[in-house]
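---------- Forwarded message ----------

FYI, see the Response regulator transcription factor record below. Original note from H. follows.
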Amino acid sequence: MSEQDGTVPAGGFGGGIQVMVVDDHPMWRDAVARDLAAAGCEVVATAGDGPQAVRRARAVVPQVLVLDLNLPGLPGAQVCKEVVGSHPGVRVLVLSASGEHADVLEAVKSGATGYLLKSASTEELLDAVRRTAAGEPVFTPGLAGLVLGEYRRLATEPAPATADEPGAPSLTDRETEVLRLVAKGLSYKQIAERLVISHRTVQNHVQNTLGKLQLHNRVELVRYAIERGLDDA
């Protein structure tokens, strides 16, 4: 790793998931990066504060950003919002010591795909990174229901203007079916099993739907579905 810019040369881990680790505690940050690298991930960058995290994430565009919330200079939730806003393809996995509901919901509304407590085991972290890279929502047990409740609450707020513009692209029957199951809180794996299709096919349907509706993340997608009553269909 370069002492100058905190980045790691590309290709160091044989095409593994490209991950960036952000935490203001050097020992913790290094330990997480080391565990991920040992598991075959490519740690493309690290950062120790908010502004540095935004700059480096925009420069390297990792597949997964493992992000602490309590950062100097710029809160982790704002880092998430700025990075996902400029690069919607980046998946954010919050790794925090806080299990406070307000922190979890703020992270989700900022665009985080998952939220894991720092008390999680290394195996749980590695599994969470893999699932986050695949676009699956990953939450510490007990938080998933809270997040689904927040999706429902968000349905009372105005949807993004682009989703309601006249002439918005229509979805195929299968895309609508997948969207309905996403709104019910099912994981991609559960949807694949329910519809007897592959996990990758579910991912493709979700990505196509996001593109058609000009939405950026799962939060906006679920809000769109709930507003149209698809979760009750």
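H. also flagged this: The first helix runs from residue 26 to 38.
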